[in-house]
Specification:
The chain has helices at residues 18-43, 58-72, 179-187, and strands at 52-55, 73-77, 80-83, 91-96, 99-101, 103-107, 112-118, 123-128, 132-136, 140-146, 152-158, 170-176. By secondary structure, the protein is an alpha+beta fold. The strands form two sheets. It has a seven-stranded mixed β-sheet with strand order 2-3-6-12-11-8-9. Strands 1-10-7-4-5 form a five-stranded mixed β-sheet, with helices on one face. The protein is elongated and about 85 Å long. The termini are far apart. Bound molecules: copper (II) ion (CU).
């Protein structure tokens, strides 16, 4: 028991038990293997994203997001702007205590460079239900290329604990059918 002191005062010079040593070696080698295998996760299971990151001051990132939202805003939803960027435009998303801002409306099959950063603390961008995850740091602008493959409503939740309002930190991305496809569907009466 830990309550009684070791019998010998210099107890740490005892040789390591053989079984313990074997387990330490196995755990160490497994750790090394998994470290090397991180590269493989990029190709297997598409778990690691292709991502760029740049240093940026949070305030100047916020200015970029505001400009983007002002330029392409199509409507308001409960006080939140819904922003629909045209094909080819860069998309800006801001995480802050406690919201993902603004709401985005993208088109299925249209690729955008999506910029994500935080104004204050570290947040976790987690796109549901597809489970795309990015750790979002203030001071870093993360850029991913995103091509929506399905139309519908997608939700962003924060998966890094960021304080008292963490569980309310949600956002939304609408993905609409491409206009040509939607028109065709209408004309065919589907
Ligand atoms: Cu958060």
């Amino acid at each position: 028991m830990a309550i009684s002191p070791p019998e010998r005062r210099i107890w740490w010079n005892e040789p390591i038990e053989k079984v313990e040593l074997i387990w330490i070696v196995i755990a160490f080698l497994w750790g090394l293997f998994m470290f090397g295998f991180m590269i493989a996760w990029h190709f297997i299971g598409q778990q690691n994203l292709n991502k760029e990151a740049y240093r940026i001051a949070p305030a100047s990132y916020q200015a970029k997001v505001n400009e983007f939202a002002q330029k392409y805003k199509v409507r308001d939803e409960e006080g939140m702007p819904v922003v629909k960027p045209p094909t080819g435009a860069d998309v800006y998303l801001l995480g802050r205590l406690w919201q993902w801002w603004p709401i985005l409306e993208l088109e299925k099959g249209v690729s955008h460079r999506i910029h994500i950063s935080s104004l204050d603390w570290m947040h976790g961008f987690s796109l549901q239900p597809v489970n795309i995850n990015i750790q979002v740091h203030p001071g870093y602008e993360h850029v991913i290329t995103l091509t929506p493959t399905a139309a519908g409503e997608f939700f962003i939740i924060c998966n890094e604990f960021c304080g008292i309002g963490h569980q309310t930190m949600t956002g939304k991305i609408y993905v609409t059918e491409r206009k040509a496809e939607a028109d065709q569907r209408l004309s065919e009466g589907r």
